[in-house]
């Protein structure tokens, strides 16, 4: 049971470390960490739909990109009917991809739906379509995308203040990441999460137990899409631009790599995978040039072959919820008498 | 009339080129139950073999012979180093080969740079078909593809080796317990599929701008062809490829290339949703 305690301690330690980062890091590094926090949230969205539900999505960036475009359009005031508030922006960035994912999920999973590899290939094709469509749609900036997206703001109307100082921005991003983590972890450990893992491990058997497989899968995809969209919305406030590259295959691939390297079955491992790879990339990619992506690809293969649970998955894997410990129902069965 | 004939010829040309890529993919999938996401990059390596040979002063025809051989060797290596470790983990084969796809593409960028390379057309003559002038090299590609497809069919349905392969596809444990060496079949299958992809890349090189992104451009249509046609038989693959490639060519000729891609991918997704076993798999099954 020692390792179980270790996972809890490590999880708490990671969040504690992230909380005290502003004390230890310089301005520039902290700003950078705040920026890649949106990638971390994005990776958690994939870890949920893939690691918990078993849906290998090759088009996760579709949701991220949709959220990013929604946020950019609204905060730049291009959709006057919706105002230009950041709250409305983030709401749209979350709801729009979430609803899109729900619809797509219901279309794909109802009846004898798509599963396994077919889902992967269909989402890959969808990512290509999304990228092509975005780069030829002039309203959202076409090939160049949208530039000069304002940063996070708070307050209303003319009294609105832009959130520019590094430390508050960092805590805003960390707060968002923590909230997403809390929500997804709670779901994962609730009976719903158990059902999702049952779907992942054996779809047919779960269906025989009377669970509505399509509904569970659609729900998982929708939630994951909403979280990815939120990540995209936060991304644009940090980087200030959105382009078709954010909605297509390359970013979908990257998030897959972060999640797989960190650990697909553990939310925090995927989150740290994204943070780790992005930090390493900003530190090394200039020195390594084209070799960086080559090395990343090779280490991805190695991790899939040698560590299917990711580099951190084992370390950070939390113990099962208490209701599931021990063999079945601990209460004496009444049915037997 | 001439325009229609031209579109028909172009459609046939694209169909046959796509068929070369798809055949390797479907054989690997059928026999080994491996979704080879790196197949586009094997195609890419075939094309770059031509670039390399021509840089060294070799002729195109030498390269055309060398490409499938080189790719067969590459296929053996890949099977040994990566694929065989993930056989029993179906989803992980997708990930591992996707990683392979990234790495191979990036390796090509490291060696040749990201810019497009040109390969000279080895048969610049045009041929008159009815009333239309058509490039001779495209006819050559069609001939190669037809021959290879027929050769593959012959191999699978008329030889002992093909019988063994089909036995492994139908029931692997049974084939193994009857004493067939499934391990050797896997190796040969992957090498054969890689060689087909390599040859396709080499033969297509003079028609395309040879750049590191060309693999993905063939991978997705190839996968969609397989899923649309059904994974059960090679004939389903031919049907799927014909549909995807012809639809693409026709839409592109009346509209734009981009529109063609959007329409074809979108329609393919709908077909796959309605017929999860492919058009030849029947609605029930």
Can you characterise this structure?
The complex is a heterodimer of chains A (337) and B (285). By secondary structure, chain A is an all-alpha fold. Chain A has one domain. Chain A has 13 helices and two strands. Chain A has a two-stranded antiparallel ribbon with strand order 1-2. The longest helix of chain A is centred in the C-terminal third of the chain and has 27 residues, at 213-239. The radius of gyration of chain A is 20 Å and the shape is globular. In chain B, strand 1 and strand 2 form a beta hairpin. A two-stranded antiparallel sheet of chain B has the order 1-2. The radius of gyration of chain B is 19 Å and the shape is globular. Chain B has 285 residues and is an all-alpha fold. Chain B has a domain at 15-212. In chain B, helix 1 packs antiparallel against helix 8, helix 2 (39-55) packs across helix 8 (182-204) and helix 9 (214-229) packs across helix 10 (234-254). Chain A binds chain B through residues 54, 56, 107-108, 112-114, 116-118, 120-122, 124-126, 128-129, 132-133, 136, 249, 253, 256-257, 260, 290-291, 293-294, 296-298, 300-301, 304-305, 308, and chain B through 35, 82, 85-86, 89-92, 94-96, 98-100, 102-103, 106-107, 109-110, 216, 220, 223-224, 227, 258, 261-262, 265-266, 268-269, 272-273, 276.
Descriptive keywords:
heterodimer, A: 337 residues, mainly alpha, two-stranded antiparallel sheet, 13 helices, 1% strand, B: 285 residues, two-stranded antiparallel ribbon, 2 strands, 3% strand
Q: C-alpha Rg of chain B, in Å?
A: 19 Å
H/E series of chain A: HHHHHEEHHHHHHHH
Helix content of chain B: over 70%
Count of alpha/pi helices of chain B: 11
Query: What is the total number of structural domains of chain A?
Result: 1
- In terms of per-residue confidence, which ranges of chain B show pLDDT below 50 for 5 or more consecutive residues? none
Calculate the mean pLDDT score of chain B and round it: 87
With helices defined by DSSP (H or I, 4 residues minimum), what is the helix count of chain A?
13
How are the strands ordered across the major sheet of chain A? 1-2
Overall spatial form of chain B: globular
């Amino acid at each position: 049971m020692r390792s179980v305690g270790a996972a809890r301690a490590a999880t708490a330690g990671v969040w504690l470390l992230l909380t005290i980062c502003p004390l230890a890091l310089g301005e520039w590094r902290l700003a950078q960490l705040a920026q890649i926090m949106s990638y971390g949230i994005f990776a958690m969205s994939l870890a949920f739909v893939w690691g918990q539900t078993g849906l290998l999505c090759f088009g996760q960036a579709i949701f991220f990109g949709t959220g990013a475009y929604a946020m950019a359009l609204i905060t730049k005031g291009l959709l006057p009917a919706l105002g230009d508030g950041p709250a409305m922006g983030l709401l749209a960035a979350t709801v729009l991809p979430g609803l899109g994912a729900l619809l797509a999920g219901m279309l794909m999973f109802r009846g004898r739906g798509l599963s396994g590899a077919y889902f992967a290939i269909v989402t890959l094709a969808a990512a290509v379509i999304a990228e092509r469509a975005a780069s030829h749609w002039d309203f959202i900036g076409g090939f160049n995308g949208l530039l000069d997206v304002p940063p996070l703001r708070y307050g209303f109307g003319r009294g609105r203040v832009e959130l520019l100082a590094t430390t508050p921005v960092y805590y805003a991003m960390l707060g968002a990441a923590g909230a997403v983590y809390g929500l997804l972890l709670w779901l994962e450990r609730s009976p719903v999460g158990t059902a999702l893992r049952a779907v992942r491990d054996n779809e047919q058997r779960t269906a025989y137990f009377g669970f509505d497989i399509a509904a569970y899968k659609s729900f998982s995809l929708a939630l994951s899409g909403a979280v990815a969209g939120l990540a995209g919305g936060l991304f644009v406030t940090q980087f200030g631009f959105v382009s078709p590259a954010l909605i297509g295959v390359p970013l979908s691939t990257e998030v897959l790599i972060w999640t797989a390297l960190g650990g697909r079955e553990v939310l925090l491992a995927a989150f740290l995978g994204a943070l780790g790879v992005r930090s390493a990339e900003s530190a090394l990619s200039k020195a390594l040039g084209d070799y960086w992506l080559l090395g990343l690809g090779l280490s991805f293969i190695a991790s899939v072959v040698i560590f299917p649970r990711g580099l951190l998955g084992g370390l950070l894997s939390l113990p099962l919820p208490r209701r599931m410990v021990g063999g079945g129902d601990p209460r004496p069965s009444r049915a037997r008498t | 009339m001439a325009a229609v004939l031209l579109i028909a010829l172009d459609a046939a040309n694209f169909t046959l080129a796509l068929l070369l890529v798809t055949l390797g993919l479907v054989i690997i999938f059928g026999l080994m139950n491996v979704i080879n996401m790196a197949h586009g990059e094997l195609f890419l390596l075939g094309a770059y073999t031509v670039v390399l040979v021509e840089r060294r002063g070799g002729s195109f025809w030498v390269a055309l012979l060398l490409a499938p051989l080189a790719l067969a060797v590459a296929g053996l290596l890949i099977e040994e180093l990566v694929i065989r470790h993930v056989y029993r983990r179906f989803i992980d084969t997708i990930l591992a080969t996707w990683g392979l796809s990234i790495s191979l593409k990036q390796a090509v960028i490291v060696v040749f740079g990201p810019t497009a390379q040109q390969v000279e057309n080895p048969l610049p003559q045009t041929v008159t078909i009815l009333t239309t002038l058509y490039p001779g090299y495209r006819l050559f590609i069609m001939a190669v593809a037809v021959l290879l497809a027929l050769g593959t069919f012959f191999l699978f349905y008329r030889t002992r080796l093909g019988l063994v392969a089909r036995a492994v596809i139908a029931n692997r444990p049974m084939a193994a317990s009857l004493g067939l060496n499934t391990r050797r079949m896997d190796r040969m299958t992957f090498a054969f599929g890689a060689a087909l992809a390599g040859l396709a890349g080499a033969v297509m090189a003079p028609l395309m701008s040879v750049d590191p992104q060309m693999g993905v451009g063939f991978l997705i249509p190839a996968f969609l062809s397989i899923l649309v046609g059904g994974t059960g038989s090679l004939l389903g693959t031919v049907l799927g490829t014909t549909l995807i490639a012809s639809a693409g060519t026709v839409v592109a000729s009346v509209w734009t290339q981009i529109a063609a891609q959007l329409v074809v991918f979108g329609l393919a997704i709908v077909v796959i949703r309605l017929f999860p076993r492919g058009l030849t798999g029947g609605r029930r099954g």
